[in-house]
Amino acid sequence: MSDDRDETESPIHRGRHALNSGDNELVLAIVADRANEDNVEIRGEMRRLAAMAMVRIGMLLEARSELEQAELDLAKPEHHWAALSVRVTTATVNLHRGLAHDALTTAIDAIVQLAEAEDSVFIDEVVHVATIRTNVALLFLNLGVPEIAVGLLDQALLDVPVGMPMSAPRLNLANAHLMIARRRRADRDPDWNLSASRCLAAVVSMTEDERLPRRLIEGATLTAAVHLLFRDVDAAGRVLVASLEHCRQVLDPTALPQHNSLLAVVLGRSGQLDDSYAWAALATSYADSIFDRAAPIYRGMAKAANALGHHEQAAENYAAADEVAKSNIRHVHALVVQLVAQTQLSIEHRRLLRAQHRLADQVRVDPLTGVQNRYALDLMLAKSGAQTDDISTVAVLFLDIDQFKLVNDSNDHATGDEVLRRLAVLVPNTLRADDHFYRYGGDEFVAILPSITGQAAHVTAERIRASIESDRSATTQITVSIGCSIGRSNDLSMILAGADEAMYVAKRSGRNRVAFAGPKSSP
Hints:
The chain is of the alpha+beta class. Helices cover about 65% and strands about 5% of the residues. It is elongated.
């Protein structure tokens, strides 16, 4: 359908735009309209958007049900990234439901999966990975661990391809730096203003080309929060008042609790207590007990109510703040830090293992030709010598380029290198999948052919010789002399020595031929 081909008219794009605009009812309508979508990943993403809209209007159980169905739809391995994105959204819903431990487990699992897949991510999957990192970072922000969130978001911004929207990771990054700045300031850390400056830098990057009113409001909120950190109430007020025009364009003003609560703080400090109380009350209509912002909002309302003489209302607000504080997830902060530290150690251990494996592979590969080298062959010989069971027949082919010195002398070493690289392509193309090919040294190569008869080994050697003789792709035509030997797999060194001697027999017999050590039959 055309709306799937046109990104700006796709249901997913319209759903995301509606969600960012605060039009939760429109999100649900778009999703309902596409309930029978054939594309599983599109259907899964639509369910995810519906769940996020449901969270905003307090339908937490319905959101969880929607996400469970999305996970069922995306159960196949080919939908791995879409399924992981849905799982992270499920964790966010669990966080809203007060299930902090479940959310934490999912967040850490997502980090581990991303780390394990780091070296095998395809270019068309990078956007999925960046989105997942951004959503996991938001989880850690809500769990009170902004330091982890910063690392994830920095990586997400590196992953996002040029031209793709980056306001979401930059918004979360600004929030993370603001949280760090507040804590450092509370701890009397003189570098708190560095984090505040990083917050403003992220806001500037986020709002440079932004058009969505909701994003612009969130940027203004962060900017005002930084002004308040610097005790500049007037500047914070100017920013927030200027953003009110954008507020009128957002259909759900209750979905802007941070903006509304900051405006209440500014108005309260300016002596406008009635307005302050009204904005604080609006903020609490969406504030959730899991977020750090909820308790301060209630306390702000209590202070404003006291100042207005509404002492009974103030007492209720203080009680609400205390109740929020009891259920707040700060009590799991130490657990979060501990588990994250353990996870990071585990991830680092996996990375070191992968680096060791890559290094081991590099040590075994000849850098010029890309085939296995003499060291890899020696390891194979040592392994065969220690073999005590499952002994089978194996053949060894020893190849030497005829008059290779003349090739270098008549041309140059670059031509010689081209000849070696070409041979390293031709020979493997004639071998079986479980055969092994090595550069022995200089212009000498070795092929090991397991589980083969002598006759089949000789046929393979002749096929290699003929393919090299008839090759016209290189600038210099070459031929090879091949020695062939066969024996038991636990005596590979002796078989190699026999193939080496047979190769010299082929040389002495006129070159460009195959010589066999012993009869052409299995021992």
